[in-house]
């Protein structure tokens, strides 16, 4: 493993390794040095205890009756800040057991890795269920909006694009998990295949596109309330360019930066990487703009819902728009405002729960509120059901004679 790591990462790139990978590399360097030392001592005296490498500590040769003390390995420093030491006695029968054991001398909790593994397994199970359920309902929602011709409008076109980004995001998470976590034996410090990097790039693009289409939704809602320019079809092309094209630009710059300046590991570890802000920066900016837009929406709706200013012909439209908008505010990244301006290492477990567990159900909630609870969708499905009954059984219902969308939004 030492040779593979050294060949894959040139010395000038080692300083840019993730801290855990750098720690493993240093451990392998110590192991290689110890094995060279043992080889040099192979022609020495056969008396006493021979030197050997014990996974994390190199034990030097010793005479019978001698006690050798070694400080706690630096490998344990990320787990506990300990300055303890371990020792072994050289006896006529060979080396004695380590005293005290590593987990006692170096204050390493034996149960910590198992507890951490259980936590991550639980998180993975929750977000797998969330993305799976969201994927199915989002696919149904997209099919409904595409199937019924009367539901085809600029507003639903934007909704469909948002649904597609949630679908792609779920697929990207599954693809990334398959590429990176298909085996417990996968070494992320040496894994650097094209398929692995492609899965990471695809995942980042889908996440970024999702945030930008959330921004498009906010822009569209603002334009509906502020002016009427959004009814022109040319705005749909502009929104499409913003939602799908802008992420391509930033992802391309990030790929070039990783290739030329930080081509290490599988590109999945971005902690302390300055190039990560090429992706994270626009996402954080979109979240901030989204939040301000929704605050502006609330301000406008409060003004328009003033009983003295509401006109009879548009009062129901504004009330319904206000209801749907206020319900959707928590779904448009407001919770991300809590973490995106903090360093990545702060509240890691809480961040994972919110971004992965809760975030995996975000598409499900959006599909329910935008499609399944939408009165126009329910009405159109009901009308189509009545028409099917008419064709099948000859039953004619007044509600099946026509259906029109009762709001331009």
Task: Give the topology, please.
Blueprint: H1 2-8, H2 11-14, H3 19-40, E1 52-54, E2 57-59, E3 67-71, E4 85-91, E5 94-95, H4 102-105, H5 112-147, H6 154-180, H7 194-226, H8 234-261, H9 277-304, H10 315-328, H11 348-360, H12 362-372, H13 375-393
Antiparallel strand pairs: 1-2, 3-4, 4-5
Helix pairs in contact: 5-6, 5-11, 5-12, 6-7, 6-8, 6-12, 7-8, 7-9, 9-10
Description:
Helix content is 60%, strand content 5%. Helix 5 runs parallel beside helix 11, helix 6 runs antiparallel to helix 7 (194-226) and helix 7 (194-226) runs antiparallel to helix 8 (234-261). The chain folds into 2 domains: 19-39 and 46-106, Hormone receptor fold, CATH 4.10.1240.10; 114-391, Rhodopsin 7-helix transmembrane proteins (Rhopdopsin 7-helix transmembrane proteins, Up-down Bundle), CATH 1.20.1070.10. The protein is elongated, with a radius of gyration of 30 Å. The protein has 409 residues and is mainly α. A hairpin with a 2-residue loop joins strand 4 (85-91) and strand 5. The protein has 13 helices and 5 strands. The strands form 2 sheets. The chain has a 3-stranded antiparallel sheet, with no helix packed on it. It has a two-stranded antiparallel sheet with strand order 1-2. Residues 33-110, 123-374 form the G-protein coupled receptors family 2 profile domain. It is found in: Cell membrane. It holds the Pfam family 7tm_2. InterPro entries: GPCR_2, GPCR_2-like_7TM, GPCR_2_extracell_dom_sf, GPCR_2_extracellular_dom, GPCR_2_GHRH_rcpt, GPCR_2_secretin-like, GPCR_2_secretin-like_CS. This is Growth hormone-releasing hormone receptor.
């Amino acid at each position: 493993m030492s040779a593979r790591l050294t060949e894959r990462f040139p010395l000038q790139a080692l300083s840019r390794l993730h801290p855990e990978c750098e720690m493993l590399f240093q451990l392998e360097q110590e192991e290689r040095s110890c094995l060279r030392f043992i080889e040099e001592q192979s022609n020495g005296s056969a008396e006493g205890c021979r030197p050997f490498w014990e996974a994390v500590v190199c034990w030097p040769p010793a005479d019978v009756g001698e006690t050798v003390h070694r400080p706690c390995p630096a490998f344990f420093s990320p787990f506990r800040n300990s300055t303890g030491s371990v020792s072994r006695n050289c006896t006529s029968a060979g080396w004695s057991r380590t005293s005290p054991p590593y987990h006692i001398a170096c204050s390493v909790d034996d149960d910590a890795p198992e507890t951490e593994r259980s936590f991550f397994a639980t998180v993975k199970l929750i977000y797998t269920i969330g993305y799976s359920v969201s994927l199915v309902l989002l696919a149904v929602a997209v099919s409904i909006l595409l199937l019924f011709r009367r539901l085809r409008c600029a507003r639903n076109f934007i909704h469909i694009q948002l649904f597609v980004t949630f679908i792609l995001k779920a697929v990207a998470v599954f693809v990334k998990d398959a590429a990176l976590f298909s085996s417990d034996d996968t070494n992320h410090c040496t894994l650097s295949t094209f398929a692995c990097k492609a899965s990471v790039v695809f995942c980042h693009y889908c996440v970024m596109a999702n945030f930008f289409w959330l921004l498009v939704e906010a822009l569209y809602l603002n334009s509906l309330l502020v002016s009427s320019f959004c009814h022109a079809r040319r705005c749909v092309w502009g929104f499409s360019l913003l939602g799908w094209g802008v992420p391509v630009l930033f992802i391309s710059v990030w790929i070039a930066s990783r290739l030329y300046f930080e081509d290490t590991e599988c590109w999945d570890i971005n902690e302390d990487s300055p190039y990560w802000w090429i992706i994270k920066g626009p996402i954080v900016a979109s979240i901030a703009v989204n939040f301000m837009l929704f605050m502006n929406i609330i301000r406008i709706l409060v003004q328009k819902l003033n009983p003295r200013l509401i006109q009879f012909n548009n009062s129901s439209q504004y009330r319904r728009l206000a209801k749907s908008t206020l319900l959707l505010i928590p779904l448009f990244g407001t919770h991300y405002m809590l973490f995106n301006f903090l360093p990545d290492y702060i509240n890691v477990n809480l961040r994972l729960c919110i971004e992965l567990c809760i975030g995996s159900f975000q598409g499900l909630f959006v599909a329910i509120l935008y499609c399944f609870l939408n009165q126009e969708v329910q009405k159109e499905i009901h009308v189509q059901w009545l028409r099917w009954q008419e064709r099948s059984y000859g039953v004619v219902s007044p509600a099946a004679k026509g259906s029109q969308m009762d709001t331009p939004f």
